[in-house]
């Protein structure tokens, strides 16, 4: 009986501490989040994600670590792989593993084993901002890319679509070249660090390829026939 009481006390303490990571609520069926996407296998390196319900909650991924930001403060740093996030709970140093699933437009942080009735899984969506400075990063979290042409291709405005759904238009050409991002007449984008693809089209022509954004960078992408 005494051992049972101790176990319940430990679990209560963990529940209070776990509020840092997941809100104490009634259990939610994780099938609510399944939209046909796969789980695991996707790199989250150098990406930032915002909680879908609590806009004060963010996750920032580096090459092998993940930091949780809550209400402007970094509250926990852990490690991750394609299938899970591992945090050490401050209350007693216990290590807990949170299942991690990746989908086409969001990720879901699951609930550690044994706490399914106290917590809900939490969905996160891509974010271009990270409101916490300090230990987990801060500073620039986005980079710029500009699509441009050096000659008139005679096909009218060129529409550029990024894999995250953003679009822009090239309606000028620059015979002397280009040196700066954000130049008027080009298709300009500011994006969170990460990997993307693009498709550019005009009457009779199509360009497509992939590119990488790093924090604080400026990339110039010339479209060539």
Automatic annotation (TrEMBL):
Top-rank lineage group of the source organism: Bacteria
What protein name applies here? SprB repeat-containing protein
Query: Source species, please?
Result: Flavobacterium saliperosum S13
